[in-house]
Structures are given as C-alpha cells and as structure tokens.
Specification:
alpha/beta; 6-stranded parallel sheet; single chain
C-alpha cells in the first residue's frame, strides 16, 4: 500500500505524520519504504523495494513531482492523507485541493486529518462540515498539540497517538 501525505500548503504536519507513521509501521512489524518529494528533506528515507508500505512526504505545493506521484496513485493501492490545520488559510485551500484531487480521480482515496487543534474546537467542527459539503472524508482522529510531535520525541504517548491514527486509516 502507498500512503501519501499531501497538502498544497506547508506547515500542516505532513513530515511529522510521515516520519511517525513509518516508525510505527516498523514497530508493528511491517516493512517500510519512505520517499520524499519535499526539498526540505525532513523525513528519514528508507529504501526497501519489497516493502509492505510505501510512505511519501511531499512538498506543500502541486509540484511536478507531486503531480506525478498523485497520478500514479490513481491506479495503485494508495491512500492520500491531507493534514489540515483549522486556520483560515487552511480553509482557503480546501476547495482547491478538492478540485485537483477530483480531477486526478483521487477523491475516494483521500482522507483529511486535522492537526494542531483541540478535538472539541468550534473551528474543527466548521472545517469538518466544509469537507462533508464537498463530499470529502475526514477521519475522527485529531493530532493533539503535543510537544512530543513538535520536538520529534518518540514517547509512549506519541506511539499510542500514531497507532490510533494508523488503526483508523489503514490497519
């Protein structure tokens, strides 16, 4: 399975989720390949052509590399994960991302996940409503505002959160 962390905006935790997803999948006994189209190269690359999971971090834009990756996902066993914050700038990106994913035939393979927010916030409820109105799916799990994530600490709490994330999405 291919798991692609994508958003046309930066700073939404794509790299963080990608890194922790790869670590947690390995901890659970799966083999992983990690690739990156983000020029910042924040994730640890892992080469394994026989992997159970191919995990991708992407640049925050519809770059030619990202478009190529997304087009390939249309015909593959793939899941596109779009991390979003609940701010106004993220809200502006939703229709644009939705239109592009629809053009690429990826709407059904896409799940939105909210990051850096409180699970009970009014803005989260409003963003989920916006996604639903556009026929888009958001998962229940919300990435908590933990220092563990921002400081790249691999604690039991972090592992539990990422495990919950993965079990809702792919396991």
């Amino acid at each position: 399975m291919h798991i692609i962390f994508f958003n046309s905006k930066g700073g939404v935790s794509k790299s963080t989720l990608c890194e922790y997803t790869a670590q947690e999948l390995q901890r659970l006994g799966y083999s992983v390949n990690v690739d990156n189209t983000d020029q910042q190269q924040h994730v640890t690359l892992i080469e394994n052509e026989d992997a159970d999971y191919f995990v991708y971090d992407t640049a925050g834009a519809f770059t030619s590399d990202n478009l190529e990756l997304l087009k390939a996902a249309a015909d593959a066993n793939a899941l596109i994960i779009v991390p979003l914050n609940t701010g106004k700038n993220d809200l502006k990106e939703i229709p644009f991302i939705s239109e592009k994913l629809n053009e690429l035939g990826l709407k059904d393979k896409t799940r939105f996940v909210f990051t850096k927010t409180r699970p009970n916030s009014k803005s989260l409820t409003e963003r989920r409503t916006t996604l639903a109105e556009l026929g888009l799916t958001s998962i229940n799990w919300v990435m908590p505002m933990l220092d563990d994530f921002s400081e790249q600490r691999n604690t039991a709490r972090t592992r539990n959160e990422i495990s919950a994330f993965l079990h809702e999405l792919v396991l």
